[in-house]
UniProtKB/TrEMBL annotation:
InterPro entries: EIF3B (IPR011400), eIF3B_RRM (IPR034363), Nucleotide-bd_a/b_plait_sf (IPR012677), RBD_domain_sf (IPR035979), TIF_beta_prop-like (IPR013979), WD40/YVTN_repeat-like_dom_sf (IPR015943)
CDD domains in the cross-refs: RRM_eIF3B (cd12278)
Species of the source: Musa balbisiana (Banana)
Residue ranges that the Swiss-Prot or TrEMBL entry lists as coiled coil: none
Phylogenetic lineage: Eukaryota, Viridiplantae, Streptophyta, Embryophyta, Tracheophyta
Keyword Cytoplasm assigned: yes
Gene Ontology MF annotations: RNA binding; translation initiation factor activity; translation initiation factor binding
Intracellular or extracellular location(s): Cytoplasm
Presence of the UniProt keyword Cytoplasm in the record: yes
Swiss-Prot/TrEMBL keywords: Cytoplasm, Initiation factor, Protein biosynthesis, RNA-binding
GO cellular component, one term: eukaryotic 48S preinitiation complex
Family: Belongs to the eIF-3 subunit B family.
Protein name: Eukaryotic translation initiation factor 3 subunit B
Length: 650
């Protein structure tokens, strides 16, 4: 058996993918197996290897890289390795000698990262992404059960992966072992950071003195290690300002995360302040909060450490409202826009952080009514230019607004009637690269919610609640409707992370029709699942793509070449389904024939009894009998009529 040859280009590519700088790796520190052949069998040693054949592993599926480790001298190697082993043994069995920490040859200190080799690759928490059928997973919560499924549209049904009662943090390739336990008594709410590095937990505790307010405890844990990184404690009043929903007088989430997927910053709003923390030390930036008089709302860019702040009008309009963009950590104001006669304001970030839309409700001159417009910020352009957009009818009520993910378009539902209009706009077109322009308006639609595909291009126009689950699948590239449908009483809509499938659900807010439907992106209903006491449906998130934007564009252009494999598989599955349908029809036909034969036999067995009942008449043929119609009259009711006379009348 020849040893496997690995090209240096492949090694460099693997190192780049794993974020390893090969120039910093001390090759002399690598310990090779003993013996002159370095443990590799020679071609002329076949006679020495006649025992049972060995199984050789291929790939790196059972190896992980741990970074951000402390840089330590030789005398602390053993202690650091013990800590690493204790933490990472919780997700699998580490192979003997399976921890390797590269060393700087000059300082003899570790380089701040290590390789860990497990006995099997089953601990790879992202192995599900390598599914041969390119399927996605979803989790549902119904009754007391939590169930994980593969979405298998080819088979027109989901495939159960895991089922469990209770709640904790579970993960894995197939077994869903418990990865970590986070100690927080009486926890009531949780929230993950965007990069899934941290878990925020919340509890509320009644005071011993009825005149006091509830005591609040908020913990922030490192998801991988389970370590408590920071806790916040106080009364309800200290945490009452924040998100859009919660318990015990607290808006949730209290903390909002910024800095993109790196999870570098988190912030919360207090009275006249924004408190911004960094996750390197979990302390306030510059050890103090940022003073913003009368601030009522803030929002992070999804990709960059930029805060958008809204401050309302003060002094009866003498001091205008304003929206400010602030760079973190330097707290530098990048852009400010003053707004006059403002009634309310709401901010919408595009998911790539390229645009910010600010919906501004303004009072008319009489102050008796309001109208709406949009301030559109181009974040990535020089000096952050701002455009003002007003609808054709600026008095229209704004029902919903949504940016196209990874794109430059947005949709608005507007109007006061039961059938509002839906308009689509673009921040750049071939004719107006730097100007917003309207693409089209769809008139009189039964919709009150917008759900863009995460890949852009397609959108579901949904009529939830009072509209009873009306659905329209719309192609924004071609400006045409692909399909319409209905999921009666639908309460929730969720696109899968690839933009291929859509789930609609009826949760337990309704007593009837609980369960979910799975649709294709183009609006074809694939399958329905019913579940009593159905609470929640969530697709399993996918990590950010490792491909560059250029590579993704190249794949999109050559999609037909890549899709041939899956088209062949689809055809095989289709043939299997057709064969299953044929067998099912054959089985039903056989059951019918068996039933007919059974009743013919029973009919024959009862022939003599029928003859006797007909006083000896033998024939069972209908034409041998004469049919007569007989009319029967029956008195149903009798009504008496009383006539009164006036005897005094002449």
């Amino acid at each position: 058996m020849m040893a496997e040859v690995v090209l240096i280009e492949d090694i460099e590519a693997s190192a780049t993918r794993l974020g390893i700088d090969l120039s910093s790796v001390d090759l002399d520190s690598i310990q090779l197996p003993r013996g002159e052949d370095f443990g590799i069998k020679s071609d002329d040693d076949d006679d020495l290897y006649q025992e049972d054949p060995l199984e050789f592993e291929a790939g790196f599926g059972n190896i992980i890289v741990v970074d951000n480790l402390p840089v330590v001298p030789p005398e602390k190697f053993e202690k650091l390795e013990g800590v690493i082993r204790k933490i990472y043994s919780q997700i699998g069995t580490i192979r003997e000698g399976g921890i390797w920490m590269p060393v700087n040859p000059d300082t003899q200190k570790t380089l701040g990262y290590c390789f860990i080799e497990y006995n099997t690759p089953q601990e790879n928490l992202q192995q599900w992404l390598t599914d041969e059928k390119a399927r996605d997973q979803f989790v549902i919560r119904a009754g007391s059960n939590t169930e994980v499924f593969w979405n298998d549209p080819r088979q027109l049904m989901p495939e159960l992966v895991h089922q469990r009662q209770g709640a904790a943090v579970w993960g894995g390739a197939t077994t869903f072992n418990r990865l970590m336990r986070f100690a927080h008594p009486q926890v009531r709410l949780i929230d993950f950071s965007p990069g899934e590095k941290y878990l925020v937990t919340f509890s509320s505790h009644e005071p011993s003195n009825p005149r006091d307010t509830h005591r609040i405890v908020i913990n922030i844990f490192d998801v991988r290690t389970g370590k408590l990184m920071r806790d916040f404690k106080g009364n309800v009043d200290e945490f009452a300002t924040g998100g859009s929903g919660g318990v015990s007088g607290i808006s949730w989430p209290v903390f909002r995360w910024g800095g993109g997927k790196e999870d570098k910053y988190f912030a919360r709003m207090g009275k006249n302040v924004i408190s911004v923390y960094e996750t390197e030390t979990f302390t306030l930036i510059e050890k103090k909060s940022m003073k913003v008089e009368n601030v009522v709302d803030f929002s992070w860019s999804p990709t960059d450490p930029i805060l958008a702040l809204f401050v309302p009008e003060l002094g009866g309009g003498n001091q205008p409202a304003r929206v400010s963009l602030v760079q973190i950590p330097g707290k530098e104001e990048l852009r400010q826009k003053n707004l006059f006669s403002v009634s309310d304001c709401k901010m919408y970030w595009q998911n790539n952080g390229e645009y910010l839309a600010v919906k501004v409700d303004r009072y008319t001159k009489t102050k008796k009514s309001t109208y709406t417009g949009f301030e559109l910020f181009r974040i990535k352009e020089r000096d952050i230019p701002i455009e003002v957009l007003e609808l054709d009818n600026k008095n229209d009520k704004i029902v919903a607004f949504a940016w196209e993910p990874k794109g430059h378009r947005f949709a608005v539902i507007h109007g006061d009637g039961p059938r509002p209009d839906i308009s689509f706009y673009s921040m750049r077109t071939t004719l107006n690269i730097g100007r917003v322009s309207k693409l089209t308006t769809l008139k009189a639609k039964q919709a009150n919610a917008l759900f863009w595909s995460p890949a852009g291009h397609y959108i579901v126009l949904a009529g939830l609640k009072g509209f009873n689950g009306q659905l329209e699948f719309y192609n924004v590239d071609e400006l045409e409707t692909m399909a319409t449908g209905e999921h009666f009483m639908a309460t929730d809509i969720e696109w899968d992370p690839t933009g291929r499938y859509v789930a609609t659900a009826v949760t337990s807010v309704h007593e009837m029709e609980n369960g979910f439907h799975i649709w294709s992106f183009s609006g074809k209903l694939l399958y329905r699942i019913s579940r009593d006491h159905f609470y929640q449906f969530e697709w399993r998130p996918r990590p950010p793509s490792l491909l560059s934007a250029e590579k993704e564009e190249e794949i999109a252009k050559n999609l037909k070449k890549y899709s041939k494999k899956y088209e062949a598989e689809d055809q095989d599955v289709s043939m299997q389904l057709n064969e299953q349908d044929r067998r099912k029809r054959k089985m039903l036909q056989e059951q019918w024939n068996e039933w007919v034969t059974k009743w013919k036999q029973l009919h024959e067995e009862e022939r003599q009894l029928r003859i006797e009942l007909r006083d000896g008449v033998v024939s069972d043929e209908e034409e041998e009998y004469e049919a007569k119609e007989v009319e029967v009259e029956e008195v149903l009711d009798v009504t008496e009529e009383v006539v009164a006379f006036d005897l005094d009348q002449e």
